[in-house]
């Protein structure tokens, strides 16, 4: 009887159009290291975007930096845009670390991007809908291909 009641409730909710909506990327624009523009995180210029948030003081971010850069190259071949956000530190330290990722790196010294920890990863689509998110890098991730698999981008 309980199963029938639960099934009826689910069908009623579905008929009413009630569903759990996926979260959206924040309505936040951040400047690039080059200083030539700002980038709206809710907009993705490709079919998917991977946003990687790192900080200058983060040991894991620095340890896995080559993996992150290799992942960007791997995903670019698949039409997936990778955006790096460097933040949560003094502007001078943020800029110094951002140089290691390139002129399109986004600066967030005030930590406006809502990340609970670094590194953090957010996969979104062209509409800004968050498809997947993860914090930290599991110990089994040894290269860009394993990280792509972990994030559902393989």
Give a count of the beta strands, DSSP E runs of length 2 or more. Answer: 7
CATH 2nd-level architecture: 3-Layer(aba) Sandwich
Q: Report the radius of gyration as a whole number of Å.
A: 18 Å
Share of β-strand residues:
15-25%
Query: Runs with pLDDT <50, length 5+?
Result: 4-18
Write the H/E string, N to C: HEEEHHEHEEEH
**Structural class label:** alpha/beta
Shape: globular
Largest beta-sheet characterization: 5 strands, mixed
Given this structure, which CATH class is correct? Answer: Alpha Beta
Total of domains: 1
**CATH homologous superfamily descriptor:** Glutaredoxin
The percent of residues in helical segments reads 25-40%
The DSSP helix count reads 5
- CATH topology heading: Glutaredoxin
**What value does the average pLDDT take?**
90
Strand order of the largest sheet: 5-4-3-6-7
Instruction: Tell me the distance between the termini.
Output: 43 Å
Looking at this protein, list some descriptive labels:
Glutaredoxin; five-stranded mixed beta sheet; 23% strand; 154 residues; alpha/beta; globular; 5 helices; two-stranded antiparallel sheet
Structure description:
The structure is a single chain. The protein has 154 residues and is α/β, with parallel strands linked by helices. It has one domain: Glutaredoxin (3-Layer(aba) Sandwich), CATH 3.40.30. It has helices at 2-15, 59-63, 65-76, 91-98, 144-150, and strands at 29-31, 38-40, 48-54, 80-87, 106-108, 120-125, 130-135. The strands form two sheets. Strands 5-4-3-6-7 form a five-stranded mixed sheet. Strands 1-2 form a two-stranded antiparallel ribbon. Helix 3 crosses helix 5.
